[in-house]
Design a protein that fits this description.
Helix content: 25-40%
Radius of gyration: 22 Å
Structural class: alpha+beta
Number of helices: 18
Oligomer: single chain
Shape: globular
Length: 524
Amino acid sequence: MNDEQAAGVTREDLAQAIGLKRRNALALLGAAALGGPGAALAQAKGGVLKVASPANPSSLDPATGGAGSDHVFLWTMYDTLVDWDYATLKPQPGMAEWATPDANSFVLTIKPGISFHDGTPMDAAAVKFNLDRNRGDVRSNLKADLVNITAVEVTGPLTVKLTLKQPDAALPAILSDRAGMMVSPKAVQTLGNQHDRNPVGAGRWKFVSWADNQKIVVTRNDKYWRAGQPALDGLEISIIPEMATGLRSVVAGQNHLAYGLSARYSPIASKAKNVTVVTGPTLYTYMIYFNYARAPLNNLKVRQAINLALNRQLFINATMGGVGEPAGMLLPSTHWGYDKGVAALYAKQDVERAKKLMAEAGHANGLDISFGGYSDQDSVRRAEVIIDQLSKIGIRAKFTNGTIAEISGQFFGNEKKFDALMSAWTGRPDPSMTYALAFGKGAYYNAGRSEVSEELSQLLLDSRAKEDLAYRKQVFAKLQRIVMEQALAAPVAFQFEMDAVATNVKGFKPNILGKPKFWDVSLG
């Protein structure tokens, strides 16, 4: 018996609940218009927000972590040099403001009075320490983000000058992500690798404890630099991989919020009297990552065959409650960088053509491919659909399942344990970050760390060279075509965000990355 049947939900209930999506989205937009950053401060302060999270973090150090799902935890403890607008992802000042006095210079002016949780100053020296560490430390996974920086210079107590290889339109957005999360230099120098599990930032809340695969606790930073914030006394984030269990914990009143739910749970959440269903579009993409630096996925025809074997709409129907957008590339149709021609390359399942490509690749009798996957019920369901679809072209997909942090580390880290990984891309504030991190030479999410071509490497640089949107769109059209013609990954579907929120939670809103911040949340 599945979760819908256990709750007494029919197909008609599901269809009706999915129909709520548009109304919820409109309500969300209305709430956002009334409640921008800081709006929740009008609500009563205090209380501890209890959150159900589907994933244990890979690390609580922004430089060393490797899972996109880490952001939800990191944003509680770390502020960023640059922030972004919830609705548009447009960069805006965070702990610093920025200027570009010339084409190859980027100057950060840090706001005064900011300190880390250990009492040390968040000043220019701390920013230089972080950026140099992010660019050069052997354990850093952020090198691809900052490849355009050639030097970091302290020019005053609160000013830092970055010298660039070329103009970089994406740098503000990059500094609103992991690379802009500042850690305490003192803590890193004292703790070394143990800072992964004992983080010290300058954010709204400070770290208390991490019980692995159970719970992370943070408490109010009473010396936080923004006046009147945070509203919450703290957060307790429980690790509950099974979405149905996480949702039930909110319905039962054990937690206040569960995020990143599949749309197939909408009927259950919508029938709960004490729960509000919040939805919104995201860049969150279910996809198959390839290690295309080694056999068998170093064969272009095999990678193309996998893409052609996928019935993306069937995947959405079977695993996402019918709510989602088929993904023919890594940007959805609503994004300014979307290219209809590229997205059409694998828009239709073509089993016969895929079989032909497999035969041409020398695998007419089939092929074994090892996959990493996750052990929660929804991930297993997605894997089953992929296994079935690939079997039709003779690919025997062999899955090894585990936690997100464990399996992702085994694929992207030094072990290189699998040929492919069924996971998700959680989106980044600027599309150049997505393509550089996933396909750039040496990038963490490029499992083989290999260079695809000099042309692709140059296009990655070109995509950041100018702010002009028309220019960037032309560059991305070329870049995305190479990625998909070379079948460097197999994007499957874009997820529509769905969160279950207790009615006494005020000021919560999802964002287009599909990774919520709780900065403006309070308990009524």
